[in-house]
Write a structure and sequence with these properties.
Elements: E1 2-5, E2 12-15, E3 18-21, E4 24-27, H1 32-37, E5 46-53, E6 57-63, E7 70-76, E8 78-85, E9 96-102, E10 108-111, E11 115-121, E12 125-132, E13 141-143, H2 167-170
Antiparallel strand pairs: 1-2, 2-10, 3-4, 5-12, 6-11, 6-13, 7-10, 7-12, 8-9, 8-11
Length: 188
Amino acid sequence: MEISVTPLKDCLILQPAVHGDERGFFLESWNSSRFSELGLELNFVQDNHSRSAQGTLRGLHYQLDRPQGKLVRCTRGEVFDVAVDLRRDSPSFGQWLGITLSASNFTMLWLPPGFAHGFYVTSKVAEFQYKCTDIYHPQSEVSIRWDDAELAIDWPLVDGSPPSLSSKDEVGLAFADAPLFDNRPAST
């Protein structure tokens, strides 16, 4: 497993070792001992798997009262994945990172608690999987607008068409109005 730091504090790009031949491939996406050796002491309690059509944008989501750390990857197709640092005491507060995750590049992204997360499907269909350090807590979920002018995320919209959004994301908050993390949540 190779780990690369990003401009966002504590947010990491992970590249697993992929073993393949003409029959296919094998990779280890999660191993608590190996991650621990790399300095990532994580306790995942929930796995999620979504399938979305091209042009779907999910996010930017986070939970305020029960913040989740997420290890995310795309296992079919391709997405543009975005992390936004919402921790006021972080040197990268208010900054975002966008990265292509795909079934062919095997890249994973670690977002610690205190980040908003979203992704946009650039392929015809994408399947997205992620492990979470806390359970889903809908009472404290917040959605920030995908097109917030202050964040100015450069989404690679297919044909420049507006994304397909859920009703929740259509009424997302402006970054300036969103509740944020005053103290960085403890990593889990």
